[in-house]
Amino acid sequence: MVKRKGNLTLPSETGFLKETKEILDRWGADAIRDSDGTKLSDELKNLDAKIYTTYFVSRGHNEFAKQNIDECQHLYLMSNFNIATSNTVEIKFMEGYFSEQVKPDYDHDPKKWWEVINRTTGEVIDIADWEVDSEKDIVKVNNTKEFHEYTVSFLVYAIWDPTQMYNHITNDWGDKEHDIPFDVRKEKSAKFIEEYMDKWLEENKDTDVVRFTTFFYHFTLVFNDNGKEKFVDWFGYSASVSPEALDAFEKEKGYRLRPEHIIDQGYYNSSFRIPSKEFLDFMDFQQQFVSKTAKKLVDKVHDAGKEALMFLGDNWIGTEPYGDYFENIGLDGVVGSVGDGATLRMISEIPHVKYTEGRFLPYFFPDTFREGNDPVIEAKDNWLSARRAIMRKPVDRIGYGGYLSLAYKFPKFVEYVENVADEFREIYDTINGVKPYSGLKVAILNSWGKIRSWQTFMVAHALWYKQIYSYLGILESLSGMSVDVEFISFDDVKSNGINEDIDVIINAGVEGTAFSGGSEWLDEKLISTVRKWVYNGGGFIGIGEPAAIHHQGRYFQLADALGVDRELSFSLSTDKYFDKEIEEHFITKDIKRAIDFGESMGNVYALTEKTEIIEYSNGEVHLSSNDYGKGRAVYIAGLPYNEDNSRLLMRSMFYASHKEEELYKYFADNTSVEVNAYPDIKKYAITNNTDEMQKSIIYDGNRNSYMVELKPGEIRWMNI
Length: 720
Prior knowledge:
By secondary structure, the chain is an alpha/beta fold.
């Protein structure tokens, strides 16, 4: 049987022609790409494959950047906290920052653009009470209050692109010139990017796909004075700030932003922060500018007969694929890095493009492809995680990045990817464009809603953090589950109510964050709308600290629906009698091991004897359910991703929505096995999500059951 080729992009590099031909054939690639740090030779470009060429809009043009250094990009940064032990304090505001990446902007008057704040009181210090020493990078503050803390919010030039800096360090580019990013909002830079695009297109006629990496503004990534990451926020807009932008913002929105609206007490408007009106306005303002400016370049690419592909990373800020202006850019496709199932869905669900592409891990860099390491381990884990999501909504293409010459040294890795490529094409050819069976519709409720679809709880792209793995597990579980998922905001609920087709709402996170909601729950319309919806038959699942803010004798503002609240030590004088566990419960029926609640949540207790306590230990409720009118609410203390927890969430949703019997349609009793059905093509797929043999009882669409035994990682296709 001849293998089908296509749907795969292969990285290559000059001087690696023979081996590239071999891998091109074995992996069935139909496109070749360069990577940051590599170039494609003419011989490679003449192979029978589409040519992707990386294109940097606002970096990688140092000849222009050096001649127009005043058009560098900017950042707002905050100094360390400084204690005043007398009536003056000197603040070394650059302390802790990497001088090769950023330098203070003294060209724009600090008295206009900077801000000194008493962080003990929140008071903004009068500009007459502080002076800047530009020789020593010091701000001297006078008339300070003893033992109050002070900070400086200051404007810097960004003189080294942070992604190139990361690659520089990772790949030991010791002699490579530092890329200086410039701001396309400025006059000369705006003209340059259009003229250079014309010139580049003329010189690169053999390019088929222009891979924008990405457009104009990098997500917030600042390094410390040791060249290590100091602050990273994959959603951060801090690097899109400039005096020009702030002036234009004031003209358009009718008010002026303070530095503090960007600095945000040093949190820089992390996506975990409940967004302020000012920050949302700034995001909207930048998205409009980015979409209009990017469209000019994309139009030029199309006029040259080429495709325009955007990398969802690096300088992606302002594009917002799930935002209101993304469609206007006119891109052909989006490519992004696949770290797990949630990030695959984040890419595959992007609207308004002809195709999506996932760049799989590991990246072909020396940190992974080194002597003594086995890259197959990471590749296998990455594929099995992503495959769950692919079975629900596949990307149109897969690919890899980095130095092919490194990967080629690992024959077992080359063989494994060959198998992955064949399996991906089989899945894609079978289910692309086919709607999978879904037993429920689930809504994730938070401050961000649609614009952060499949991006909830992330700090940096698919990286693990102690405080969030208990919540990222929700998205990872849902990414491969037989349910429809949408993301709604608190404002959506207040303005439009809750759609009738939603079966279950999930609210999860730590109190005070944008994901749990914090002060959002003080809005009487929001709380009463959600309560009424559950009371009339909806299912609600709260994880961690749902709807949490201490108010009027409650901590969980939906405690009445959940049947539990959290003790804050204020009601220790009130006895809590209810601690009897239910011996068996629908939610935990398939779970054979102790439930992993991750970081969990302490001091949660049942309000009445009606609360079904499913897991109780250490004097705390970690899993419970409560009937509320015609509806139900389930409480879970935390949900890191594993197979059992994914099943626990699935059972919780069917139970909360009173659809227990519907669970047993296209269902496997083994938590390591999943079933996805595609009624329109009369097929369903049974997948083994592990690298071990698995046995499972399988239920078909009519709830008939039979036993299967699956090889490690096997997909078995069945006819309906």
